[in-house]
Amino acid sequence: MSSVTSAEDMYSVINEASRLVGVPCSRDNIWPVLTAYGDVFTEAGIAFSVSTGESLPEELDYTITVPVAFGDLYATALSNGLIAETGHPIDTLLSDIQARVPIAEYLIDAGVVAGFNKIYANFPFNFQRVSKLAEIPSMPTTLAQNAKLFERHHLSEVAMIGIDYRRKTFNLYFAGLTDEYREERNILSLHREIGLPEPNERWLEFAKKSFRFYATLSWDSPKVERICFAHTPTRDWDPSVLPVRIAPEIEKFIKGSPHAYGGQPVVITAAKWGTGGGYLNLGPYCQLSPLMRNILEQLTGTKL
């Protein structure tokens, strides 16, 4: 496919990806998001993702990078009716992060069915310690309450924060994972302390090979709601290493997803684990921003 340079191009690509994965695509759900952030597409990074197990997904998510120079992403979402101000601390979390953390790039995330969901603040060259992030005024006390838990399990450096306005939760994306973190006893202990079901052998082997870990927290509960283990993005995506089988339609979508660079699509695979057990998140990259390209080339060791 050719590069995405406009909102219309972006809609066309989303429509194609939706058709491939079997999710209904409505212009009414997608167009308000694309026009709100319509000046960013020329050099935007774009990724699709589906959450799935053996059944077919009901949603296709799309994520778009936004340069820092764009301005206030939260105000843009408000003024375009993508979210509403609620009086909840989540309303000021992004601005509080901006005042304290050197952000390299933003991302927005939306669902083809559900609409606008999240704003991410990405700082891959300025990792932040959990203890410092816990001092941010609008952060829930949940983060400070779990800081020692993360530290005990060798999770200390955060590279990105995702704010989910629809669910009123946020994600911490941990980087710099060590061999101590990847030890089986550490991962099992983490599950037990959080109160999550113990993973079976295939899920555990997947978790031990993760290059990123993220945790979902909220303002309403002191517990970590969900954890996720992400593998290094790869061109040589192999469904046989997944901890569960996926539907043939999903495999076909991942391998054939539209992308504006040569060769096979770069895919990131993540295993999510909550109180109900585990499921997968599969994300093929569609287009690469300069920052995304730089990071992925370092991770994959190949020119993109």
UniProtKB/TrEMBL annotation:
Alphabetized CDD domains for the sequence: PT-CloQ_NphB
Molecular functions (GO terms): prenyltransferase activity
Keyword Transferase annotated: yes
UniProtKB keywords: Prenyltransferase, Transferase
UniProt record similarity statement: Belongs to the aromatic prenyltransferase family.
Name of this protein: Aromatic prenyltransferase Orf2
